[in-house]
Amino acid sequence: MTYRPRESVFGPPLITRIPSMTYLAAALGIGILVLVGEQSATGSWAFHYVVELDVDRVMSIRTFAVILLISSLSSVLRAGMRGVRIYPDGVEARDVLGHIVPKLRRYRWPQIERIVLDGASHIAFDLWDGSRAYLPRVGDRPALEAALQKVAAARSIPIRGGVPPDDLEPEQIEED
Length: 176
Description:
CATH architecture of the largest domain: Roll
Structural class: alpha+beta
Number of helices: 5
Shape: rod-shaped
Largest sheet: 4 strands, antiparallel
Helix content: 40-55%
Radius of gyration: 24 Å
CATH class of the largest domain: Mainly Beta
Strand order of the largest sheet: 1-2-3-4
């Protein structure tokens, strides 16, 4: 029977999530400003800006706040879709191209000729057709490397770079 690893997911690094989290915080701030302005006293500047000046706007400020909140939530969800998933039949690389288009690539274990861990920024696979596929950056690269080394040792996939097998901790090389 062939070794089949348990499913594990490695999410994107925090630095890629910061812009969408900042956008969400700004959208929440505007939403709170709208709610406070609607509940304020009649003579206050918040009531004047939110309620009284709303007559002259093309779009109401409440609609603007709702659209902003929905788009910021979708931005946070989109940022969270990036990463690498190891599943029993292979590896799944999830990324977003051009801040809009999701990209999903699946690599089966038999397709992978070699795992390249010596790159400074990316982990790569040399595939059976002679091409090289790069995995997206993840938040916990050492754990991803350890998981790939475990699978490579069990499936006899050559590895270039990384930690030598003798230096792996015993819990990292135990079979499931």
